[in-house]
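Hi team, as promised in this morning's meeting, here are the two structures we talked about. I've kept the exact order from the run log so nobody has to guess. The first one is mostly here for context; it's the second one we should focus on when we meet again. Sequence first, then the predicted structure tokens.
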Amino acid sequence: MDYQVQENNIVTETENFTSNINLDDNEITYTDSEDNSVAISIDDPDLKFVENVDGTIVYENEEEGYSVDNQILDGGFRQLFSIESESSPKTYKIDLKLDEGSKLVEKNGLYFVENSEGEIIFTLVKHGLQIVRKLY
């Protein structure tokens, strides 16, 4: 995906969405064409920005032995965790910020973000965030 570097942010803008990766806070904010947004970050103050590899934003916690690659995709984003040793953490706390009125819901082991009207606007999957497109 095409992106722009703006101060400490990597910004991707298309007709369907805008995404922003804040390099200092390891936070991805994704806003769809209907102005629904979600922000996700890893709760680890020792996770530091390392490099931008063709739009893949790499963070690393050298002491804990893991890294996270953030990638913006057409229709969502993903975070890829690289666990580098047996002593690396096996679980991670991920912070999720939603628009006012939106909520995270679980249905049959799957997670969705619903807006204030109860419509599913985002789907959270093990491999990233997928956007539910309305077909009408």
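And here is the second protein, the one for discussion:
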Amino acid sequence: MIMIRPSRPDEGVRILEIWRGAVDATHDFLTPEDRRAIDAMVCGFLPHAPLWLAVDDNDYPLAFMLIDEGHMEALFVDPGRRGTGIGTALLRHGLARHPAMTTDVNEQNDQAVRFYEKMGFRPTGRSPMDGQGRPYPLIHLAYPG
């Protein structure tokens, strides 16, 4: 049984483990230098961000989602639990609170693009660079509500 709850301050190490594992499993397009730079940036804010966690029966975090004013900034699932419905459960939780949610996804992350499209998100635009000006194009998506 998966439960969804807010993150707690003492869960930063586990949240970073999930992020690193998920990025390593899905973001093979990143250069090693960019991967290290992004990791350093993420370590500075993610453990303290207000996240939604998907946890198992033992309250062990398996995935997380970050939503800021209706924009989903992050959705990452422990790579050992991908394909089990955890990401879908988190996303539905977020959509129940933000029915017109938007998000951005790396164009090179085909699995994520397919996931969001399957969940009903539609492309609204494209940027040639990511939010930090790196050459990783983003697809802007919106849920029709």
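Starting points for discussion:
The chain has a mean pLDDT of 95.
The beta strands are 3-6, 52-55, 61-68, 71-77, 102-106, 122-127, 138-142.
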